[in-house]
Amino acid sequence: MTRKVAVVGMGHVGATVAHYLVAGGFTDDLALFDTNEDKVKADALDFRDAMANLPFHTNLTVNDDSQFADCDVVVSALGKSKLVDTPDHDRFAEFKFTRTQVPLVAQRLVDNGFHGKLVVVTNPCDVITSMYQKYTGLPKNHVMGTGTLLDSARMRACVGEALNVDSRSVVGFNLGEHGNSQFTAWSTVRVLGKQVLDLAEERNLDLANMEERARQGGYLVYKGKKYTNYGVATAAVRLVNAVLSDSRTEMPVSNYREEYGTYLSYPAVVGRDGVVEQLQLDLTDVEKEKLATSAKYIKDRLKSEEERLAENEA
């Protein structure tokens, strides 16, 4: 069975996603798209040259919309990260650009008969994921955002560092918005065979500091090089591979939660049919309140940003 993936937006993140897919041999066919024709052609040429030294071959196409028709997965990585150059790294700063581009890309997908799974990296992730689902008409479980898959990884790295263990040995989730209203659900975090809440008392761990470092991790990377790419691209490819391989992997991705009326990050089982099962965590009352607050923030912020931008355009 041939595996086929498309990457829309070949900036820092999209190019890194594409490189990881090519270097890892994760897809047989890779369709690349970007409004900068010279850039995307150069990337394709660079990947072609790399293949002579790779154990895998990947068939490449550039800016050919007909390729959408039989893609298993399309990754939306379009954006303008320089708009997020704010003290609080507010991902909604990109919305004034991405809100205009998403309907255009969605229409191209519809026009070319795309019926696969959509993985959204584009910020603000939860809102853009919702927009893609609305404009493409795809089933809600077939449209997913990377969400807090990256933020949870940052949290796990912080916990791992504090306890001197591999971050992959840490289990647990950041929930809610892929943005400033997210939080670490410490009741879900386990490591060294124990709840991290118990270890925090035994080993004097500063959980509040770790949570804030996970939340601000993207800004710290951005501050150093004016973009982020490796962490989020790896999260995106992990999500793509879960679909391609039907691995049915549990991970915190942006998926539509009926009880909150919005896309937000909450653990789900991901396989060939997208979100194949939604989990129901046994959260504390405080965590439930934080999640409801984050959901409300996503919905309220979307409404206010749309109203503000509409006024500016009037």
From TrEMBL:
<dbReference type="Pfam" id="PF02866">
    <property type="entry name" value="Ldh_1_C"/>
</dbReference>
<dbReference type="InterPro" id="IPR022383">
    <property type="entry name" value="Lactate/malate_DH_C"/>
</dbReference>
<comment type="similarity">
    <text>Belongs to the LDH/MDH superfamily. LDH family.</text>
</comment>
<dbReference type="InterPro" id="IPR001557">
    <property type="entry name" value="L-lactate/malate_DH"/>
</dbReference>
<keyword id="KW-0560">Oxidoreductase</keyword>
<dbReference type="Pfam" id="PF00056">
    <property type="entry name" value="Ldh_1_N"/>
</dbReference>
<dbReference type="InterPro" id="IPR036291">
    <property type="entry name" value="NAD(P)-bd_dom_sf"/>
</dbReference>
<feature type="domain" description="Lactate/malate dehydrogenase N-terminal">
    <location>
        <begin position="4"/>
        <end position="145"/>
    </location>
</feature>
<dbReference type="InterPro" id="IPR015955">
    <property type="entry name" value="Lactate_DH/Glyco_Ohase_4_C"/>
</dbReference>
<protein>
    <submittedName>
        <fullName>L-lactate dehydrogenase</fullName>
    </submittedName>
</protein>
<dbReference type="InterPro" id="IPR018177">
    <property type="entry name" value="L-lactate_DH_AS"/>
</dbReference>
<feature type="domain" description="Lactate/malate dehydrogenase C-terminal">
    <location>
        <begin position="148"/>
        <end position="306"/>
    </location>
</feature>
<dbReference type="InterPro" id="IPR001236">
    <property type="entry name" value="Lactate/malate_DH_N"/>
</dbReference>
